[in-house]
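Quick start: what a row looks like.
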Amino acid sequence: MKVIDTRLPGVVIVEPDVFPDSRGLFLESWNKIRYEQAGMAYDWIQDNISVSTKGVLRGLHFQNPNAQAKLVQAMEGEIFDVVVDIRIGSPTYGKWESALLSSENRRQLAIPGGFAHGFMTLSDRAVVGYKVDDVYVKDSAQSISWNDPDIGIDWPLKEARLSEKDAIAPRLKDMPPGALPLYTGD
């Protein structure tokens, strides 16, 4: 397994070891011991799957309180996956990182709690699986605008199909006091 650091501390791209043969391939999508040795000591409690068509953008989502760490992978198709540091006081506050995740490259994106996350589907259909380390809490679930000009994410498709909630999400600078997580120096 190869771990690739990003510009955002704690956010890493994981390239699992893949073992192909004439029948197909095998890979471990999660191995507690190996991932902990690589610095990803999460206690995953739930697996989620979403299915989206081309141009669907889900995000930018986060929970505060009840922040969720995530391990995201495209099981089918291709997505442009994005993470934004929204932790008040962080040296990388408002910065973003992205990764192309696909069923072909088999990459994963590990995201600590305290970051906003979203993805745009680039293929005709994408099945995205992700582990989380805390449950969904409706009253903690929030969004920030996917096209916030202060963040400046360079999405590969300029048109996005959004949920009603995501279509009206505020800009980062317009989030109400106390809505964003605090940087704790981790």
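That is the whole record. Residues 2-173 form a domain with the Jelly Rolls fold (CATH 2.60.120.10). The chain has one domain: 2-173.
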